[in-house]
Amino acid sequence: MPLNYKKWDQLELSDDSDIEGHPNVDKRSLIRWKQRDIHEKREARKAKIEHLHAQIACNTVLYPRIQSIQASLETPETDQPRTVYFNSLVEKLETNPSKECPPGNDPSQLEQTYDGMLLSLLRQVGDAAKVEFKDSGATDDQREERIGKSLADGMKEHVVRLKETIDNDSKELEEEIKEQKKHITSEDMHDGFANKYVPPKPEPAPLPIAAKLDKPATPKTTTTEFEVINSPRQEPAAEEEAEDLDDDVANLTPSLEAFSKLPLRGFEQSFRFIQEHRDVVVPGASDALLGAAFKAQYDNKPKYSKQCVHQSLLLQYGDKLGVDGLRVFFKKMIAGDKRAEAVFMDDVEKTYAHLVNRVRISQEEAKKGGRETIMLASENDGDITFNVPAGPPPDELILGEGMEGMDIEEVRKALQFRWEIFKDLPQNLQKALQTEELVEVNKVLGEMEVEEAEEILQRLDMAGIIPFSDSGVRDETPAGRAAAGLPPICRRSRLRF
After folding, report:
1. Rounded to whole angstroms, what are the CA distances from 133 to 150, 301, 360?
2. Which terminus has fewer CB within 10 Å in the chain: N or C?
């Protein structure tokens, strides 16, 4: 295909080879004058083109309005006199003008608005009609008809002149643009064939939570252990790891945080966001969103929590559908597949309901968690004896076998002391002791503060209601352990729910 070199003829160069000057004028000055002349003409042409564009646009807006007024004056639609119609139009433009104006004009200046320009024209036509009537020498009876006709003729003349102005400006603009295109300037320069290598963007890194969730499980081993409730805890490392995992879940990246705030069922908006932010679809993003949902629900932000669940499931569904799963999933959702949308939203509701239940349980356990309690334990249930009095000692007290040498009054005092101790116990503990079930007693003790429970256990031991020293049940509280030096059975422990 032959190359076209005609475009090089359009170059406007200020070369010194075609400059013939006067011997008394140095050539460098002539070259500078030539350059300045080229640039001045170029700027003047550009300014003129912009002026013609603005003038044509302004006149194009005014022309139909002037044409409509002229038509109303020529053939009035009502019996209203033409002068009345004309004066009411002038009054309206004077009292309630619109601020609409051409681009670059000041709307606060009336003369720079479209209504201001139209008002100036109407005043000009009205003044000319009055002068013409005055010069004609017509009588007052002919005033309405003569002035009305002059107004219609004046507006018709301006319609014709404005149309000619628009046509002339359009023709002149076309010539100026044609002349401008004859010369290639620096503004017309642009890159042609360019071979610029743009390296692909690196794949976004997975979130820290992904590495922890994908960590291989520790092999299970079978060991024999003796359970000691009061022994030091052996799992701080596991707790710290769980806390770090929670931090990674809750701390979203800026892109994920913005993604989590998109509305429910905003499938088109979510798909567009994913296309613009590649770091949203990374390993661990779905789990991080679920963690943020849990934290938001815990902080009493149900709306945001449900949004996080919704966005997390969007990523999960796309991952389950394969390599191009996100595109397939969003194509169905955006197309309005009611069946697919119903399945997805049902999954969102179920997942959110499960999360709400977990948060509720966590909040209830947090209220009890971390509190130190007293617990009673024994290797065999038969080792624990309960000596719960049924009432005060009777008036006639008979000593049994093996107690013949004891003072009956001392026995009465001991039984009375046991009864008084029992009556001073809380009602719920009295009922638990009467069942003679260790589980029921531990329930009541677990609800008490440690100091209160220790005091009650000492009173129970003193009264012999639960004798720690004479039976298989022994006192493992700090005081009992120091005094007896025996293997603890009654133990104090920290229980976290």
Report:
1. 8, 80, 93
2. N
Q: Residue 165's pLDDT is what? A: 93
Q: Can you tell me the distance from the alpha carbon of 50 to that of 369, in angstroms, rounded to the nearest whole number?
A: 78
Q: Which two tokens stand for residue 321?
A: 């559908």
Per residue in 306-315, pLDDT (tens digit) is 999 999 999 8
Assess whether pLDDT exceeds 70 at residue 487. no
Question: Alpha helices, DSSP H only, in 108-197?
Answer: 114-136, 143-180
CA R_g for the chain: 50
- Distances from the Cα of 106 to the Cα of 99, 114, 115, angstroms: 9, 11, 13
Nearest one of 248, 348, 253, 363 to 308, comparing CA atoms = 348
Residues 135 and 462: their CA atoms lie apart, in Å, by 134
Q: Calculate mean pLDDT across residues 114-119.
A: 90
3-state class of 392 per DSSP?
coil
Under the banding of pLDDT at 50, 70 and 90, the label for residue 231 is very low
CA distances from 192 to 165, 184, 189, 195 (A): 41, 15, 9, 10
Segment holding 320, helix H or strand E: helix 302-320
Task: Render 42-74 in DSSP notation, one character per residue.
Answer: HHHHHHHHHHHHHHHHHHHHHHHHHHHHHHHHH
Whether the full predicted model's pTM is greater than 0.70, yes or no, is no
Tell me which of 235 and 167 has the higher pLDDT: 167
DSSP classification of residue 493:
E
d(CA 397, CA 381): 31
Buried b (16+ CB within 10 A) or exposed e, 391-424: eebeeeeeeeeeeeeeeeeeeeeebeebbebbee
Residue 320 and residue 328 in contact, taking contact as beta carbons nearer than 8 Å: no
Residue bearing tokens 């945080």: 257
Which own/partner pairs from 87-90 qualify as long-range (CB within 8 Å, at least 24 positions apart)? 89/122, 90/119, 90/122, 90/123, 90/126
CA distance 78 to 312: 69
- Cα distance between residue 418 and residue 412, in whole Å: 10
CA distance 122 to 111: 13
Cα–Cα distance, 182 to 9 (Å, whole number) = 9
